[in-house]
Every structure is written in structure tokens, then in C-alpha cells.
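pipeline/complex-builder :: batch 7 item 3
reading input block
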Amino acid sequence: MLSIKNLHVKLEEEDKQILKGVDLEIEAGTVHAIMGPNGSGKSTLSYVLSGKDGYEVTEGAATLEGADVLEMEPEERAAAGLFLAFQYPVEIPGVGNMTFLRTAVNAQRKARGEEEMSASDFLKAVRARAKELKIDADMLKRPVNVGFSGGEKKRNEIMQMAMLEPKMCILDETDSGLDVDAMKLVSEGVNALRSEGRGFLVITHYQRLLDHIKPDVVHIMADGKIVKSGGPELALEVENNGYAGILAEVA
Amino acid sequence: MAEAATQMTATEARLDALSLPQGGWSEAARKDALARVHAMGLPDRRDEYWKYTRPETLVQPGAVPAALFDNDEAPIFGEMDRLNIVFVDGIFDAEASDDLSLEEVTIERLAETKSDIHWARDLYGVLEARGQDPVVRPLAALNTAFATDGVLIHVTGKPSKPINLTYHHRSETSDAVLHHVIRLDAGAEVTVLENGPAAARFNKCMEVDVADGAQFHHVRAQGRDHERRAATHLFARLGEQSTFKSFTLTANGVLTRNECVIELTGDDAVAHVAGACVGDGDFHHDDTVFITHDAVGCESRQVFKKVLRNGATGVFQGKILVKKDAQKTDGYQISQSLLLDDDSQFLAKPELEIYADDVACSHGSTSGAIDEDALFYLRSRGVREAQATDLLTLAFLAEAVEEIENEDLREEINGRLAAWLERHRG
């Protein structure tokens, strides 16, 4: 599904290398987790994959179902099936949540040459998803993320993911700012979307999210590279020994 | 001395090109207004309130020719149930206009009024004259003196539909001077719409007297002609518990100066003035607003938003004056520009002058660019960059557009803004 080969990325503004050769293969139907200390390049990886400005790929490649995603505009990546659940979802005053969602859903459909969703089908789908994520009608009416609590913002991200039905979902520290109940709710939302045709990349500092979203593969990232990969037990090792222990071991 | 002499020479040159309409009930008011013009002189760029907008082309004897604009859109407000009154280059067009009779309102033409209309005589030029202090507005006095046409609308109840003044621009050199007077009796309610570019140069004055408990709604769309010039004045006096709400959409126009002067004279009156303007390139738009609180418990809001690109210029000069006894005043003023590139500029001069001690007044003014984080967020969800930019631009304008109470009108204005943005994508 998502194939990353020897990816090197530096900041455009300053001559600072962030990713120093990342290799990653995520097959459809699997959940991969990336863990790592602060500054290891986890969020940069998610931004580069989704097309945020300010990064320069100096070497390597990333493809989604064989297509070069790094050559695409952010909106083209979205239409191709890539979705990033933001660590810090952006507030957009003046744009209603529903308008935003409907514009996004139909923009992607249009880009793929599909028919736009009718207003009533859209409304029905949103209501069903919102109910699952305990998002009330008022939240849907408000401007995008404006006045939302941390938990509401993350639930809103998962609702967007559910509506857009991407092939490849990247969750960037979705657990940050969530209390235990909210984490459970968000995880249930993610788990409901797990399917044979869909891949997940879950970026997190902590093992606890992975108690709820059980990964198939866990990677440890440090200093711009994946230094160790393994099964879910690797996350437990991080929890017990911290990153220092693992990093010392691979050094 | 030399400056004053230059100013008076320009004033005399302008006045020489005009002749005062003789006779009729408005004659005395016109003569008074002419005396005011002589005393004040026409605007000069050294005047404090003309620092940001050059008045020369509004003052000079003839209009700068303005190419006619091929408007490919259906006329705005055209689908509404309305009473439409049409002016072509400032001249009333009876053929194109609807019959002027409507229940609970009387509508007459300024130019055709032979008999003495007492209510209009008590208003014509009166609010304009009151609005000359403390800041002079010579182009409005000029208008009162020389207006060739306009409508006199006396609202006695709640007419069933809006009155729409439509202005067509058909001659490249037209120089139109229209003056409208509107009186709402106590408890009356009316919506007045205005649309169109009117002329190569348009000087328009509207005086609105809103009696106790009356409600005046005003929505205006200034036409899309690129080369037109306009100086408009809206004077209003509000009685107790009355409401005045005015919104203006301005798209294109090489020079537009919209002045609004409101006096809150009755307790618990509400005045909202809002504007959304969009300019690309050779565009200069100036909102100059003066709101005087002279009664207890009144509310005023000024909400002005400007979207500027390719060297377009926006100006905002807004003042709230709270007199000594106007306690419990609630005043709000916001002026913001969205600069879509580095070439555009926004010049703002917010002013507060408060003599009462128990008031809440806030004001703010900002200039900014499109929020890059919001843009990326939208794009990451699949919205194309141009569409995402439009969406964020409309969101920026929303606070002004939302001042329009009527949903159909609001939608119509939003539709025009969206269409304009689509045509003027970077």
C-alpha cells in the first residue's frame, strides 16, 4: 500500500536534515506503529507524506499503490487515498464543519471522477458517523474545530477519516491531549475502520494508545531513521525500558 | 493661503459647471446647501479625511470617462419580489421601472415633485446639514444643491416587499447626482435595496429618518464596472427603539468612497453598518463612517471587511462618538483586510471619542494574509488550493455578510462574492 524507500528530508528554510533514510512498507490491512523520542522525525514523516510546505526531499521515494505521492499536490494525495489525522487540528473560523466536510468529500469524489454525494446521503452518513463518535449536532454546526476541546478535535479528525474513507491513514499523535475515555472513543473509531483494503500508520510517543489500536508491526524511530522493527511486544519494551535502553541496544 | 486658494479655485470650477435647479419646494434647501459648499470648499487632498483617498476626480468639473462593463451575470436581486425603480445614468427610467404604488408607502420622484411635500421639505438636506459637524462632507452638500433626481419614500407601515433602486451605467461620460429621502413613521418597516454602477461618476446621497420603533434595512451592491467612480453618503437619524441596518457589497470600481453618518437620538436604538468589498488591481475603496451616540442604551456595530489583491487599496475611517449623556452605550467597530499579495494595501483610522462614563466600546483593525495552516488543512482533505482559498476568503468576509438579516439576500450576496472570487483567482 504505502512504500517508503530511503527517504531523506531536510527543512527548506535551514540546512537541517530531519529524515536520514527511512524505509517502510505498509501492506493493505495492516496497522504499523512508529514510536520514538521527541525530535526523531516522526511528525516530519507524516507532514512530508501529506505534502506540507517547508520540507525538501533530498533523496528517496514514497509511493502509494505504486504512485509517486511526493510529486502530488496535497489535495491529489488526499484524492489518491492518503489521510493525515493531525496532531494539532486547525481551527477555521467562518467555515462550518458540515460545509467543510461536504466540500472535502465531494472534492475527492470529483477528483476521482466519481459522482458527488447528494445532500441527503451526505447528511445521513455524517449523522451515523457522528453518533458513533459521540459528536453532537451542535459540534457539526460550529466552525471547523473552533471552540472544540482537545478530545473533540481528535474525534472530529476520526469522523473526517470515516467520511473520506481513505486507503492509507496516518495518525499523528492522535493520543496527545486525550483523556482515557476520549482515547477509548477515538480508538474504537479507528478500529471500526480497520479493513483488508486499508493501511494504518500510527505515530505515538506512548504505548497506551497501542493497547486500544493493536498494531501488527511496531517501528522505533530515532534521529531520522527507523532503528528497530518488531511485533507489538516492542511497544511494551519501550514502555518498560524507555527509548534509552533500545537505542543503546541498536547503537 | 496658497492651498486654500487652490481649493477654492477647484470648488469654483466645479460649481461653474453646474446650475442650481430653480423653483419647487426644495429650492431653499438647495440654496442653503450651495452656501455650505461655498463655505467649506470641495474636498482637497490636504483635508484630514481625504488623506488616503484622492478627491480630485470626484471634484473636477466633468467625469473621467468610464468604459461600459459587459456584465455577464444576471442582475442581482432580480429574482426577488420587489418594487424596482430604475435609473439610467442618473435619469429615472419610467419604462423599466415598476409602478410606484405600493401599500403602506408613498414613493415620489424628486425631479417631478411640483407640489409641496411637507415631510420631504422637512428632511431634504436636513440630515446632510446635521452631518457636516464636526467633520465636513462637501460632496454631500454639493449633492443636495444639485441633485437632478432621486426618490422620496415615505413609509407609513410595513410594505409587503422591498424597494429596489437599480442603477444602470450606459454612457461612458455620465455624471449622475441622485438624492433620496426616506422617512419611516413610528413602527414602520422597510427594506431598501440598491444595485448597479449608476454612471461613470456617481454622487449619491440618501437621508433616512427612522422614527421611534421603526426598522430600516438596507442592502446595496455596487456594480462591477472597473472604471466607475462613486462618492456616496448615507445619513440616518434614529428614534427610540428603532433599528437601522445597512450592508454594502462592493466589487471592482476604480474609486469608491462610501460615507455613512448615523445619529442615535432615541434611547435603545440599534445601528449596524457593514461592508464587504473585493478588489483586484486598479481598485480603491474607502469606507468612512461616523456614528454619534446621543441617547441612552443604544447599540452600534461597524463591520467592514476588505479582500484586496494586485495592488488594490482599501481605506477605513470609522468613528464612534459617545456624547456625555449617552450612558449604557454599546459600541463595536471592526475593520479587517485580507491581503492576497504583497502589493495591496489597507489604510485604517479607527477613532473613539467618549464623553460618557458608563459605556462599552471596542474596536479593532487588522491586515492579514490567508492562514497557511488552514489552507494546508483544507488541501490535505482533498480541497483544491483555489477552492480552499475561496472558502477561507468567504469565511473572512462572513462576519460582515452575516449582518444581513434576510437569508435570501445573504445567500445572494454570498453567491456574488463566491462568483467574483472564482473569476479573480490568483
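note: Chain B has nine helices and 19 strands.
queue -> next item
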